UniProtKB/TrEMBL annotation:
Domain EAL: 1-254
Signal peptide: none
Annotated organism of origin: Trinickia fusca
Protein name stated in the entry: EAL domain-containing protein
Highest rank taxon of the organism: Bacteria
Portion of the full-length sequence here: 778 to 1031 of 1034
Length: 254
């Protein structure tokens, strides 16, 4: 059976699941968000990472139904946590380039928010810099539509693409996510430290929030804290984990 057919079957049989990685406010140390990361629990192979199936899903058109499932599940789960009385946090969902190109994405998000009852401010969409810049004019229109819904928008892998500053000003985004490649070299490469500092300063001057991803050490966290980076995500705090595990972490913050 080829991968595409296996993925189709996996979707039908409910073999996908979401892991969540905490996003922490650096000042307070509290969990303020979490990134939803899809996994496939293949009964024969075990847990399969997204890098092994997202590209195939994108080529085969399966990315549509898969992303729709991810979005719905993330919203449903977040609303369920809030209904259980856990401290509210936003959930961030990655949107692939293919999905962003679909003109009805705002309609889909609207429908899913209505269906799950999640308040828009507790949903954020992550788009990579390259996805947005692929067709920047079109992106401005679509980002405006999405932003009008009241959800958050973040630029993922920031610093690896080629956003021009003039576009950055026109994109109605709330948050920049500093790419892991820069963060991981804090303490090792002065160039990457300079880039990280510059991105934080840029975010502040454009009145955007900024989050560093891939934070693995206390020294990296100190560097970010000194520069008033707002949030951090990375193994230093926690790896992506099951919904049960992250509910346990949220519970401790009540
Ligand atoms: O989850 P991991 O920890 O292995 O993530 C690897 C990559 O897969 C990341 O770049 C992430 O953005 C992407 N990814 C994870 N979940 C999703 C998803 O639901 N949709 C899309 N389009 N990409 C995802
Ligand atoms: O590309 P995107 O940022 O959406 O994907 C997040 C990816 O980064 C996931 O694969 C996640 O498992 C991984 N990740 C999260 N935190 C860390 C970290 O501290 N170190 C490393 N090496 N990877 C991380
Ligand atoms: Mn991401
Ligand atoms: Na990223």
């Amino acid at each position: 059976l080829n991968l595409e057919r296996r993925l189709r079957r996996a979707l039908r049989d409910g073999e996908f699941l979401l892991h969540y990685q905490p996003q922490v406010d650096i000042e307070s140390g509290k969990i303020v968000g979490m990134e939803a990361l899809v996994r496939w629990l293949d009964p024969e192979v075990g847990l399969v990472p997204p890098s092994a199936f997202i590209p195939v899903a994108e080529e085969s058109g399966l990315i549509g139904p898969l992303s729709e499932w991810v979005l719905r599940e993330a919203c449903r789960q977040n609303k369920a946590w809030q209904d259980e009385g856990l401290p509210p946090a936003r959930v961030s969902v990655n949107l692939s380039a293919r999905q962003f190109q679909q003109r009805d994405i705002a309609k889909l998000v609207t429908a899913i928010l209505e269906e799950t009852g999640l308040e828009p401010r507790y949903l954020e969409l992550e788009l990579t810099e390259s996805t947005i810049m692929r067709n920047a004019e079109e992106a401005v229109v679509m980002l405006n539509e999405l932003h009008a819904l009241g959800i958050g928008l973040a630029i993922d892998d920031f610093g690896t693409g080629y956003s021009s500053l003039s576009y950055l000003k026109r994109f109605p985004v709330d948050r920049l996510k500093i790419d892991r490649s820069f963060v991981s070299d804090i303490g090792a490469s002065s160039d990457d430290e300079t880039i990280t500092s510059a991105i934080i300063a840029l975010a502040h001057s454009l009145q955007l929030q900024v989050i560093a991803e891939g934070v693995e050490t206390a020294a990296q966290l100190d560097f970010l804290k000194e520069r008033a980076c707002n949030e951090m995500q990375g193994y230093f705090f926690a790896r992506p984990m099951s919904h049960e595990a992250i509910a346990g972490l949220l519970q401790r913050e009540r």
